[in-house]
Amino acid sequence: MQRWIVLTALTSALTGLAAPAQAADPARAQAPVRHSVRDSAGTVVTLGDAMIDPKVPGRVRVNVGYLCSVADEARSLTVSVEQADPEDAASKAFGSSRTAEADIVCDGTQQERQLIVQSKTSNWIPDVDAVLIATVSNIGASPSASADSRRVSLKVG
Fold this sequence. Notes:
This protein has helices at residues 2-18, 26-30, and strands at residues 43-52, 59-68, 76-85, 88-98, 111-118, 129-137, 145-153, 155-156. The strands form 2 sheets. A 4-stranded mixed β-sheet has the order 5-2-1-8, with no helix packed on it. A 4-stranded antiparallel β-sheet has the order 4-3-6-7, with no helix packed on it. 14% of the residues lie in helices and 44% in strands. The protein has a single domain, classed as Sandwich (Immunoglobulin-like), CATH 2.60.40.10. It is mostly beta strands.
């Protein structure tokens, strides 16, 4: 009996998530959607270029732009890079870097940061594609994170 109650509650909750929220009000569904960082907890993250450090080939510098509204909750910025070796399928260079919460400025203006990502396994390979992921997280907001991802060919810079 208890399993049936839990299953019914779970099914009801999932059914509510499957239907679009605006479908209940046809006038609202046709209204234009406005996005303003000042009146929402929304955050936008944009990945820039990524360059291998010429002096330390195990490091890559990743440029990230983000825009977030003023909030009481602390936020963090994380950048991850992963690159497969085209000559050795078992070898992958990967690493991530996270900023301190105090270093994230959320005041409704565009911010630019450069993060250094150190590979934990091997040096980065020039002119080979890598996957970049940047995430600004805020546990107290909804949604709790905003992210951007790209595939880029790493260059020595």
